[in-house]
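re the bet — no i am not wrong, look at it urself. input seq straight from the record:
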Amino acid sequence: MFHRVICTAAISVALPLMSSTAAAQVIQPGDVLISNHGGSNVQQLRPSTGVVTTLVSVAGTPIGLAFDTNGKLYINVNNGIDKYDPTTGVLSLFFNGNGQREGLAFDRDSGLLFSISFGSNLCEVVNLNGNLVRTITIPGTTALLGVAVRSGTLVITDFGTGGVYVGTTTGSTFTLIGNLTPGNTYAPAIDIAGNIFVNDFAAGTTVQFTPQHAGGYAKSVFIAGLSNPDNGLSIGPDGSFTISEFTANRISIYNNNGTLRPQYPGVLDPDELVVYNPPCANAGGDTDGDGLCDDWEKNGLTVNVNGVAVFVDLPSMGADPNHKDIFVQADFMVSPGLCIPFFGCLFGHTHQPKVDAVALVTQAFANAPVNNPDGTTGITLHVDCGPNCIMNPKLGRLGGLCLRPTRSRTRIR
């Protein structure tokens, strides 16, 4: 990932024991995966054709669904979570939890799953090794049900009271921002602007909570006239809303202004849903989950800089598709001081980061207890703060040498 600030990366994946194998089925970007509440299976809708098929059958009632960054599907079933690998057709028991499952969300930033236990009125946070990290409870709630996560914000809904609660993915304090119909609050979602949307399936509406500059949230109806109960809700990269309408046995897709796109009938007992929108679907995937696509880390990529096509040679910078990388660009100011013709400049100074300090930070990231697909731990930090900074810590290569117009793509070796 590219940053002007330093941030953390995702946690690695370890495979659990296999429990069953079905025929592998291709999942394409944009496909909608839907829990069949009455049929003990997960359905797959391809909006480009309108065809609905069965992806995988489970031993129980599937509810919440979530994808990780490697395209593995997690399914809340009974008291735990199943894991399905679309490339092999393997369905695995991934996690045994406490109480009947409902909503499920995956946080791309932390690599953690947030799984709601409706039966025990709590949220269990699970890592991609299938281990319980912590348990979240919210005072004043009676039947937690829905969950959504985005950019550090965690939203949890309470079916019993109709409450909508907002907190952070790392905190334990939650704020009640509003209520929907008690006994009818269902799936939440968060858009890129931080607006929160929740289905109120008694009213057949999707309700919007908009953050206010003075604090709090303003509540309004965003979509009305849905066939209740409207259960699942997902917001796509283009801002579209995909909603499951249980009684109508259909999936409806809305534009980001609330106007209706196509509707897809023939989906049986649709409960929760998830839209497959992998960030690197067309660029080789993201094996190490660092936000840099595998094809970019292997071959580099071309970007547009002020109308000029520039090749970014990530391999020469030390990028590795099997080891987490973070790239940081540090801009700084320089004062030449007092400049005298034919003599030079005096009293100048620079705010360029000190190389020794950058090296300490780079080593701290390398020592981070974060697993990688290559079997090692740590994160490789690449800092571009001028020609004296080391951009490739593995080879000791300095920065400022790996960006060039596309007409010259010879890598520096």
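see?? The chain is about 5% helix and 45% strand. told u. also The radius of gyration is 24 Å. so pay up
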